[in-house]
Amino acid sequence: MAQKTGEVDAKRPVRIPGGIATAVGSWPGTDPREAAATIIGELPDLAHLVELPGRGVGSDMLGRVSALLVDMRFDTTTRGYRLAARPGAASRRAKDLLRADLDALEEAWETSGSAGTGRMVKVQATGPLTLAAQVELPGGHRILTDPGAVRDVSESLAEGLAQHVAEVRKRLGAEVVLQLDEPSLNVVLEGSLSGPSILNTVRAMPEPEALAVLDAVITAQSAPVLLHSCAAPPALAFLRGSAAAAIGFDMATIGTRELDQIGEILDTGKRLVLGLVPSAAPSDPVTWRNFAEPGVRLVDRLGFTRKTLADQIVVSPACGLAGAPLEWARKALRLSAEVARAYAEEPESLTFD
After folding, report:
1. Is 286:277 a contact under the CB 8 Å cutoff?
2. pLDDT digits over 154-167, tens only?
3. Mean pLDDT value of segment 180-193
């Protein structure tokens, strides 16, 4: 059967292009329609479904997962979230908020004229390792302490994400990129998480085991996966070995010791999503050139051609923008887009004093 105009073939491989801009996910405020319209307008090449944690329980990075898991749900505790035996207020609220966000995105998508064009959009979710590290079992221990629970939650997440991606693809007629956020990756690998008391410790998860958990979720998806970590520094060697198509991190966390690992990631053909624009407003006046320089110097120092900026580099703010003033959040998107445009159109001519 011939593919209808405007439909996206989920089986066709999708590659994340370089020389474009996106954002990490969270956004200030509580209005999903205003947020969706802003993101679609400012990020024409890779807009995203926003997260609005300012709305409270169920709207933050962890809470949203409760709306995505299959046959599992969360409840709240004084420490955060835990698995629950039956749907409760937290899970119902998470589902309602996600539905409202999807409706707002679809409305803004159609209004912008993007419907049926095959334009790309990104959705975000907490990755399985951070989920296991930060959400508790009913008894109060972290999911990470129970290998069987880690497996069950990861399988539920993989299935739920596949359904989520399919729904967004169908609603928008868009190519979808899935971002998995793993801010707790380093502490999972290091074994530096505490238990419910000082007598309880959480073992370090061996890298092969952690990679198997992560890749099981990634390979279950019909969309290219971007792994994002805001750890300082990010576990680049581990991330390079994953099945992800792209790796994202805050450029400010990178030192000399990480350069070789970045070069190895580029050598594999993966995309780098460089967090070049700070999430907080700088005290001094800035232009896009202030934030373009680190990326240019990175590829120059590693010995790659400037064409790498257009082929393999995606530009973003350093992290989520939920804590930023709305004025700076909007400017951060514009600056990211301007840096990406310079990388795509004139990488060889970029010079800095």
Report:
1. no
2. 999 999 999 999 99
3. 95
Tokens 């010995």, located at residue = 303
Q: Which residues contact 160 (CB under 8 A, 6 or more apart)?
A: 68, 69, 70
Q: Which comes out higher in pLDDT, residue 86 or 66?
A: 66
Closest of 121, 116, 127 to residue 50, by C-alpha: 121
**Could you tell me the sign of the dihedral formed by the alpha carbons of 66, 41, 224, 186, in that order?**
negative
Average pLDDT of every residue of the chain: 93
C-alpha closest to that of 17 among 159, 183, 213, 224: 224
For 149, list phi and psi in degrees, rounded to 5.
-70, -40
Residue 296 has pLDDT above 70, yes or no: yes
pLDDT attached to residue 217: 98
- Of 10-14, 20-24, 69-73, 206-210, the one with minimum mean pLDDT is 10-14
Check whether 340 has a pLDDT greater than 80: yes
Return the structure tokens found at 335.
């600056």
Q: Are 144 and 132 in contact (CB under 8 A)?
A: yes
Residue 113: CB partners within 8 Å, gap ≥ 6? none
Compute the distance between CA of residue 38 and CA of residue 261 in angstroms, rounded to an integer: 35
For the segment 94-103, the average pLDDT, to the nearest whole number, is 97
Domains of the chain: 20-349 (3.20.20.210)
CB neighbour list of residue 228: distance below 8 Å, 6 or more residues apart: 24, 124, 179, 180, 181, 182, 247, 248, 249, 273
Provide the pLDDT confidence category of residue 10 given band limits of 50, 70 and 90.
low
